[in-house]
Amino acid sequence: xxxxxxxxxxxxxxxxxxxxxxxxxxxxxxxxxxxxxxxxxxxxxxxxxxxxxxxxxxxxxxxxxxxxxxxxxxxxxxxxxxxxxxxxxxxxxxxxxxxxxxxxxxxxxxxxxxxxxxxxxxxxxxxxxxxxxxxxxxxxxxxxxxxxxxxxxxxxxxxxxxxxxxxxx
Length: 169
Hints:
44% of the residues lie in helices and 21% in strands.
């Protein structure tokens, strides 16, 4: 039932910590098939020569392949034209795509766009960036409306490793 779990993840607030043993196994399968990006706690030796199953995972995002699989599950087997798929992809910014986009940026990097701030928050929680995110009421824009702000100090070594893994695909 990992594909049902993939549908569940589509509506979850990512990144999401998973601690239920069944769900950790589902995350493992979805990650192995390339449908999600996740960090799974390593199994460890219990001093008796056997290994304990992973107890926790952090689901970072659903990959493009994962979104395509969701479309197939819903019966949209290519029913949408490529142009509308591209438009839909542009409206939703994925955190790992955003990480790739800022890879060569000069830091600190100031971020004001709400969708980009959402990505920064996900990347920060996953440990991929070192960032500060102000509350929405911390400062105001030119119109005097409350505005959220994020400042990315750097991409962490863990984030750089993730970028390297993505480039190796």
